[in-house]
Design brief:
The protein is built from 13 helices and 5 strands. It has 3 domains: 62 residues, Single Sheet (N-terminal domain of TfIIb), CATH 2.20.25; 94 residues, Cyclin A, domain 1 (Orthogonal Bundle); 85 residues, Cyclin A, domain 1 (Orthogonal Bundle). The radius of gyration is 29 Å and the shape is extended. Helix 4 crosses helix 5, helix 5 runs antiparallel to helix 6 and helix 12 packs across helix 13. The protein is mainly alpha-helical and 307 residues long. The protein starts with a strand and ends in a 10-residue tail after the last helix. The strands form 2 sheets. The chain has a 3-stranded antiparallel β-sheet, with no helix packed on it. The chain has a two-stranded antiparallel sheet with strand order 1-2.
C-alpha cells in the first residue's frame, strides 16, 4: 500500500505524501484517509512528567554541548563523593585515583591541555564579570577560531582570554569596558588592547559593533544609584544628537558621562564631575572636554518635562 521515494512515503491511490498521527500511532493519507502503517514505534520517553521540574529530573540526555569546554562537554566526569555516606577509606582513595586519571585522559595531548587552560580562564573571567552565557560562549568561539588560524599560538593565556572576552562583549553588545576586563585578568590595559588588535588583524575579519551610548548611560546611572529622570533625559539627548564627529576616536564612556552631567544640571540635581568620573572610571578632564564639545556644537533646551 506504500511506495517509497528516498525517505518519503506516498499513497498508492492518490500519490499524496503520508503523514503521521502520533496519538493513534498510524501513518495515514491526508487526502483519501488510507492508513499506510499502524502500530508505529513511539520514539519518545517511556516515562511521564507532571511538571517541568519533574521532566528535568527524569531526562537522561545530559548537559547541552558547550564551546566553553575543551571537549564540548561530551565526555563523562566523576563527581564528588559523599564522605559521610562512605566509611570505606580504601574505596574513597580508589575513587580519587580514578578521578585523577580521568582528568588526565580528557586532556591527553598538549594542545588539549592548552585549550582547556584558556577556556578555563575565559569561564573564570566571565564569572567575575557576571557575563551572560551567550557572551562567554561567543568568547570561547572567538578563541577557538584564533587557535585554528594560528593567531593564538605561543601567546599569553590571560591575554588571549581577556581579549576574546572583550571582543565577545563588543559583538554581543554587553557593556563591559576594556579596563574592567583588564582588571579582572590582572593585566595592563595596553596588553589587553594589543591582543585585541591582534585577534582583529589576523584572525577575525567580521564587523565589530560599537557599544551604544544608551547602554553606558544606564550602566553608570545604576552603579551611582542616580535619579531615573537623569537617565531618561540623558538617553533622550543622546538619541537626538547623532554626530559621528562627536564620537569619532573618543571613548563612549566619556560621552555617556558628559550626557549624564548635562542632564543632572538641567534637572537641577547637579552632581559633581568628580563623582561621575569615579563611577565611570574616567578622569574629570575627559568629562569636561566632552561636555564642552557638546555644548559648543549644540544648544540643548528642555522642552518636555521628565516625569
Amino acid at each position: 500500500m506504500i511506495t517509497r521515494n528516498s525517505e518519503e512515503a506516498f499513497c498508492n491511490f492518490c500519490k499524496t505524501s503520508l503523514i503521521g498521527d502520533v496519538e493513534k500511532g498510524e501513518v495515514v493519507c491526508p487526502t483519501c484517509g488510507v492508513v499506510g502503517v499502524d502500530h508505529m514505534i513511539d520514539s519518545g520517553p517511556e516515562w511521564k512528567a507532571i511538571n517541568s521540574e519533574d521532566k528535568i529530573k527524569r531526562v537522561r540526555t545530559g548537559a547541552p554541548i558547550s564551546l566553553a569546554l575543551h571537549d564540548f562537554g561530551l565526555t563523562t566526569q566523576i563527581g564528588e563523593t559523599d564522605s559521610n555516606s562512605s566509611k570505606d577509606s580504601y574505596s574513597d582513595k580508589s575513587i580519587q585515583r580514578m578521578k585523577k586519571w580521568q582528568r588526565r585522559i580528557r586532556t591527553s595531548s598538549s594542545r588539549e591541555r592548552g585549550l582547556a587552560n584558556v577556556l578555563g580562564k575565559i569561564t573564570e573571567f566571565s564569572d567575575h564579570l557576571t557575563l551572560p552565557k551567550s557572551t562567554s560562549e561567543t568568547a570561547a568561539h572567538i578563541y577557538r577560531s584564533a587557535l585554528r588560524t594560528g593567531t593564538a599560538k605561543s601567546k599569553s593565556i590571560n591575554g588571549m582570554a581577556a581579549a576574546s572576552i572583550y571582543l565577545a562583549c563588543r559583538r554581543c553588545r554587553t557593556s563591559r569596558s576594556i579596563g574592567e576586563v583588564a582588571n579582572v585578568a590582572d593585566l595592563p590595559r595596553a596588553t589587553v588592547s594589543r591582543y585585541y588588535r591582534l585577534i582583529l588583524k589576523e584572525g577575525n575579519q567580521e564587523y565589530v559593533p560599537l557599544h551604544s551610548l544608551k547602554t553606558y548611560i544606564s550602566k553608570i546611572v545604576n552603579i551611582a544609584n542616580l535619579n531615573p529622570k537623569i537617565e531618561r533625559l540623558a538617553i533622550t539627548i543622546s538619541s537626538q544628537i547623532k554626530d559621528s564627529t562627536l564620537s569619532s576616536g573618543k571613548s563612549p564612556v566619556g560621552i555617556a558621562a558628559a550626557f549624564i552631567y548635562i542632564s543632572s544640571v538641567m534637572i537641577g540635581e547637579k552632581i559633581p564631575q568628580r563623582e561621575i568620573a569615579e563611577y565611570a572610571d574616567i578622569t574629570e578632564v575627559t568629562i569636561r572636554n566632552r561636555t564642552r564639545e557638546i555644548l559648543n556644537k549644540y544648544k540643548i533646551k528642555q522642552i518636555i518635562k521628565i516625569k
